[in-house]
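Researcher: I've got a protein sequence and the SMILES for NAP. Could you write out the 3D structure of the bound complex as structure tokens? I'd like something to compare against our soaking experiments later this week.
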Amino acid sequence: MNIIITGASQGIGYEITRLFAVLPETTVIAIARNEKKLNQLKNECSIKSPHSNVVSVSFDLEKIIDQSASITNIILQHVDHIDILINNAGLLINKSFTDISPQEARKIFDVNLFVPALLIKELFPYMGKKNVTHVVNISSMAGFQGSSKYPGLSYYSSSKAALASITECLASEYKDSRVYFNCLALGSVQTDMFAKAFPGYKAQMKPEEMARFIVDFALNGYKHFRGKILPVSIANP
Ligand SMILES: NC(=O)c1ccc[n+]([C@@H]2O[C@H](COP(=O)([O-])OP(=O)(O)OC[C@H]3O[C@@H](n4cnc5c(N)ncnc54)[C@H](OP(=O)(O)O)[C@@H]3O)[C@@H](O)[C@H]2O)c1
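Model: Sure. Here is the predicted complex with NAP in place.
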């Protein structure tokens, strides 16, 4: 099985990678910018499971927007098809609507919407080839319609709402393919991002607990859900 995870250098993505790495005959391509943290992740995985095959790819995913670099060529050096893609990388800048600059607002939408969308586009030819491919987009309760909204998170929340919406669009557009799209709207998880969003609060859920759910969903959820936006939340914040 070939699995791609973005935002693997810390938080939820780090734990997702660790869980997938123990599965037999699985190649996990772990993408983020921080090379040091990715190498630490790879080492941890190989100590825990000597047969694990974690490929760490230090790459700034924003580069796929202006096409200044290709992640596809790097991925194709290791796998020829994709079974699971988890679009987990995300960016949160906590600033009021009047303080946030257009550049910051744009960057939030780049990382949270355009990066996953363009990654799906680039990798689409390698999906649904051998088996069903499950694309899991990681959104947030912050962008879930009707949920509580918080100051400082307007662009973050709306970018995550857009990611949820495009999931439904792609599921509809490619309903006759073997590529299945779903979106998980996560509630609070204790990570660096959560601390930025809600300074001083403590989340009830640890990254490894949320990662366990996401891994199980990525492996099995496509049998029951297609084109769905599912809230995964015990508290917010
Ligand atoms: N924690 C929560 O309470 C919560 C709640 C709802 C939704 N979520 C969502 O869950 C996902 C994971 O969140 P988290 O809390 O684990 O966040 P985190 O600890 O801040 O981790 C974010 C990850 O995204 C990567 N990333 C950011 N920009 C990137 C870029 N340009 N290129 C490549 N990688 C990039 C970071 O790696 P590098 O810095 O090494 O590039 C890092 O590994 C996010 O999509 C987030 O919005 C989290």
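Model: The pocket of NAP is lined by residues 6-13, 32-34, 60-62, 88-91, 111, 138, 140, 186, 188-189, 191-194, 203 (CB under 6 Å). The chain has one domain: 2-232.
Researcher: Great, I'll pass this along to the crystallography team.
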